[in-house]
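Operator note (shift B, R.M.): manual run for ABC-2 type transport system ATP-binding protein requested after the automated queue skipped it. Running by hand, logging everything below so the morning shift can see what happened. Input copied straight from the record, untouched. If output looks odd, do not overwrite the archive copy; leave it for review.
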Amino acid sequence: MTAVLQAQGLGKKYGKRWALRECTVEIPAGRVVGLVGPNGAGKTTLLKLAAGQLQPTAGAITVLGGRPAGTPEQLGRVGFVAQDTPVYAGLTVADHLRLGARLNPRWDAAVARERVARLGLVPSHRVGRLSGGQRAQLALTLGLAKRPELLILDEPVASLDPLARREFMQGLMEATAEHELSVLLSSHLVSDLERVCDFLVVLVDSRVRVAGETDRLLDTHHRLTGPRRDPGRLPAGQHVVSASHTDRQSTFVVRTDAPIHDPAWTVTRLGLEDLVLAYMDRRTVAERRVALEVRR
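Run finished. Output pasted below as returned.
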């Protein structure tokens, strides 16, 4: 499996605070990767390290087999669209295309013109007159016309209404299929990721909690509901991701490769949002540690 991004013990520190710590992950090429986690988890820091906009404090990261932004050629292989869709209100759409052509040696003018026409953007209009969705689409157009091998998107639809989000994601899916590029997409909106992503990375408290193909993750995670039970009594092959209890009932989300045959449990499948929320649930971290100690 060819990796588009590899991080080993990666960390970034601002003063005394770690924004990202002990991040180890390998992301395969040719995938649309969803990066999800709560605010402050380190998502933007990881994306900026991948784009070469930040330098790591600890560990190592390679992107497309090289150091991020290590050479002009390496810089040209990665496209980056920041959360605030970096376009300039005082410039026209055509000005943005000319600027893109000057700054990017791999610039594909035909791709830029075709997308602008298909989106109904008027080249002579100043960007300040465009809607939020149109500005986001223009930013995506600039990223695609750079002809990157990896396109990094940091919360590109966070401020858009549902219709504009859907149109943006549809355009992204079409472009990914057409240009055969790898995409690393950060978003809080798991429903959007569920439609477009085939690989998932969950980042919590500056660390990767789980990473893998979405279909595989959904196949190996289950919700167990039954009589109250201590997590330490579960089989060793069932890794407890989250747990909640009432006086008589326990509910666990577990990860396991083995079939679950215990008749005491009602077993249900998880959706992607359920899986993400289970890994983001901080209430059961201490309980998972206790369970591990019991098993030892």
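Quick read of the result: Residues 5 and 63 are 5 Å apart (CA to CA). Residues 285-296 have pLDDT under 50 and may be disordered.
Leaving this for review. - R.M.
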